[in-house]
Design brief:
alpha/beta, Rossmann fold, two-stranded antiparallel sheet, 14 helices, 10 strands, disordered N terminus, GDSL_Est/Lipase, lipid metabolism, transmembrane helix
Amino acid sequence: MDLHPCTLETLYKMPHRTTIFLRLNRKNMAKYSPSFTITTTLLPVFVVVSLLLLVVVPKAHGARAFFVFGDSLVDNGNNNYLLTSARADSPPYGIDFPTHRPTGRFSNGLNIPDLISQQLGAEPTLPYLSPELNGNKLLVGANFASAGIGILNDTGIQFASIIRISQQLQNFQTYQARVSALIGPDQTQRLVNQALVLITLGGNDYVNNYFLTPITVRRLQYTIPQFTKFILAEYRKILMQLFDMGARRILVTGSGPLGCVPSQLAARGANGQCASEPQQAAALFNPQLVQMIQGLNQDLGSDYFVAVNAMNMQNDFISNPRAFGFITSKVACCGQGPFNGVGICTPASNLCSNRDIYVFWDPFHPTERANKIIVQTIYTGSDKYMYPMNLSTIMQLDSMT
């Protein structure tokens, strides 16, 4: 495709009312769109730009790397390689995965990172601990997440060997050294700067720390509002470490509606109502996370961080599941006890026959279909869910640079 007499970069610098000549070569254009038949025309710049985005941008989406940090909501198999009880490597996990086998994902099928990779036009990232993560596979990115971890190092101690966030960041440093040996330091820096990053932390700090037992060390130290401020201050430090390591497009998720998951309905809820204290915690954590992201971006002078308000996203289909095609948002598909919310999902658990009509797969984690709704909202959602922009806007903006 030939632009004459200016480049695409020049186009974006021109006023929108400017009119230019665009010379399109029919043979070259066919590579991008066989049905594209314009040969010579006179168009306003905003039309030209829109035209070019439609035919050129999708090819670029798959080129960017994708890095994932966090807990079981985004772990795609790292804990398979650890001596820990926080594992999803036995049936019926993975029952709806393409292989119909457990992979270490805490899902009946695909999880949130898998679905974001699809939006990027890329193959799923491999777990950092996978022996298959080498050579050109490194250039796709890596998933560093580990089920059970939180913002705080004392979160998830009951799970023994898990990859805490400090170690995940160290693994990211080692990853960059491995990639640098493959493509050189300059190209590695460019790959990391242009990558999309997803980090999911916070829920375990409440459920598997503060609220783990009726009396915990953190409960004795802090009220719920105080604890929320404490972990958000620690989260900010983690995000700055990611930034210092080269990350520039970082999706930062809040917690879901913690009191409404089947495990909390079974343990703390009254008559099927969401548990009040975990709900209070989530209601404090999510808006304050958005405020923290806003402050970080102001301090750094650009929108490097994007807050994903997971509570608002999930509240929609928890409060009105039938509007989204679910029959229940209270009972897990796989589990036992009240609401199938006791213990973990095992081969001996109750198992629903149709996972698509359940919001929750197990006592803690959404089904693949619920994950698809979440990721679609990440991609196209308003600022009620995505602040200051959604993923489609990020991809469009980045395609212009």
